[in-house]
Amino acid sequence: MPPEFNQNTMVIAELIKRQNAVPFVPFMIVTSSGKTYEVPSPDHLSITRLLREITVERDDGTSALVNPLHVAAIERLQSTSQSG
Fold first, then answer.
1. 71-76 sheet: strands from edge to edge
2. CA-to-CA distance for 43 and 19, rounded, in angstroms?
3. Domain 7-76 CATH assignment equals 3.40.710.10
4. pTM score, two decimals?
5. Which tens digits make up the pLDDT trace of 15-37?
6. CA angle, 24 as apex, 71 and 12 as ends, to 5°?
């Protein structure tokens, strides 16, 4: 019997794939409420696989716990730097 589809597992797998990508490409997690969480480097993201917890750490020392059920999209983070 094939494994049952589980949205949490799919979100966690996609985040792990992006976190481990070489080269790393910064991305943003968009939740169902419209809130966004930037992941500018692999070190800004922690994933607890067994508990299905996603933690996004910010440079100011704060962090956000994101429920994978509320992840609506994972988007490439647009660069804010412009070459001149």
1. 36-39, 27-31, 71-76
2. 8
3. no
4. 0.84
5. 999 999 999 999 999 999 999 99
6. 30
